[in-house]
Design goal:
Layout (H helix, E strand, L loop, with lengths): L1 H31 L3 E4 L3 E3 L5 H15 L3 E2 L2 H10 L1 H5 L4 H11 L3 E10 L2 E10 L4 E11 L5 H12 L6 H7 L12 E3 L3 E11 H7 L12 E15 L3 E12 L7 E12 L4 E19 L11 E3 H12 L6 E2 L2 E2 L4 H4 L6 E4 L4 E18 L2 E12 L2 E9 L1 E2 L3 E3 L3
């Protein structure tokens, strides 16, 4: 009985051994049926990755494809030691054929990885060692995402061998030569002087024409303007630009006035003709007092401006004997509204008053005329504020000083 059991176990063991041996033979036969390939260190320029690291990435992707028996760096060590050229400068067809013959391999793969401004160009070629010809070659551009270099190599190798590729990965790494992107648009630095004039409307017109003894400027309501514009383009193509503009300006110098302002604007320039639309806030200072304007000449003959103090003095002189404003023997000066409901105290421009921070909002439209590198911008604008504003035109010139990439 014991002998019979031993015989059965022996037969089973021989069968298992035969199965494993046959499987090993089949795998060896499968590997031996594949062409052999070696990967030489590629040429690398403009990126941080080393050629040895990229060669390992290529080998890894070739192994995943299961179309070659891939030599690793250890299989190549002895041959690489024989010639320094094999290790450091083996990029051309003749050198690759010589390396492949020394390794006794069917194919040798090499190429170049180049960082070019805002993209990475991957070139891969496969040399047929026995045929002494280039078997396959491909060049493909990718977006500047070096961290995804192995995926780029995967895409190129699979396209070379007509293997399926995930569409999403290809699209995310593709180099998109769009018209408006933050990586391929030049930034133009155009800055220069501005000169022009403006007409004052509303409360500004009244303040300008009012006599000096009433707190006015006593000037014509048309003032000159001189300043300097700083301009930065943050998005742009041949037919569209988005601009950030800042303007330092002084008005009224020709009439003995010094009226400073500072404006920040967002501008859009369209077409080759250089049409422009811009808008943004303006800042300045203004002297003001509380009072009212006798527009109906109720208390004066020339539309006098009364400050609150001046009105109180006027009321004390003119109405102290009026019983309407005397109660229990005490005189209470009337307000201008008590006499004329159209009159109310409010803030008005007054050079004798306190200094206040003043804000405006500016709208501008214009066109830039070009003569070579010289730009001549002509703009019409309106500066709006409470109670009034300024209509004007300014002209300037600037020279296109520099074009720099937005992302250095």
């Amino acid at each position: 009985m014991m002998k019979k059991t031993t015989l059965i176990l022996g037969i089973i063991g021989l069968n298992f051994t035969s199965v494993f041996a046959q499987d090993s033979i089949n795998k060896t036969t499968f590997q031996q049926g594949l062409p052999t390939i070696a990967v030489a260190n590629p040429y690398v320029n403009g990126i941080a990755s080393k050629s040895e690291t990229i060669a390992k990435m290529i080998r890894l992707e070739l192994i995943k494809m299961k179309q070659y028996k891939v030599y690793d760096e250890f299989d190549m060590t002895d041959v690489l030691k024989t010639k320094e050229e094999y290790r450091l400068d083996c990029y051309g067809q003749n050198c690759l054929i010589s390396l492949g013959a020394a390794l006794n391999t069917d194919f040798v793969m090499c190429g170049s990885i180049d960082g070019l401004s805002n993209r990475i160009a991957v070139t891969i070629k496969i040399v047929d060692v026995k045929g002494k010809t280039i078997y396959k070659t491909m060049v493909k551009e990718f977006d500047d995402q070096e961290i995804e270099l192995q995926r780029m190599l995967e895409i190129v190798l699979k396209e070379m061998h007509d293997a399926p590729i995930q569409k999403e990965i290809t699209e995310r790494l593709a180099y998109k030569n769009d018209l408006i992107t933050s990586t391929n648009v030049g930034r133009i630095n155009n800055s220069g002087p501005r000169i022009g004039g403006a007409y004052l409307s509303g409360s500004l017109n009244e303040f300008a024409r009012r006599p000096e003894n009433q707190g006015g400027l006593e000037i014509t309501p048309f003032v000159s303007m001189i300043g300097y514009q700083f301009e930065k383009q943050y998005v742009g193509t041949e037919n569209f630009s988005a601009l950030l503009e800042s303007i330092i300006n002084v008005s009224g110098l020709e009439q003995g006035q010094f009226i400073p302002s500072f404006t920040i604007m967002n501008g859009f320039r369209f077409g080759k003709a250089g049409w422009e639309l811009a808008f943004g806030p303006g800042f300045g200072v203004k002297k003001m007092s509380t009072g009212f304007i006798d527009n109906e000449n109720h208390f004066s003959s020339n539309g006098q401006y009364f400050t609150q103090t001046e009105w109180n003095e006027y009321a004390n002189r003119s109405y102290s004997d009026d019983p309407t404003y005397v109660k229990d023997g005490v005189f209470t000066p009337p307000s201008p509204t008590d006499i004329n409901p159209n009159y109310r105290f409010a803030k008005h421009g007054d050079v004798r008053g306190a200094t206040y921070f003043n804000t405006t909002f500016v709208f501008a439209v214009g066109r830039t005329f070009r003569a070579g590198a010289l730009n001549i911008p002509v703009n019409a604008f309106y500066s709006a504020q409470k109670g009034g504003g300024m209509f004007g035109i300014n002209v300037g010139f600037n020279v296109q000083k520099s074009k720099l990439p937005i992302h250095r």
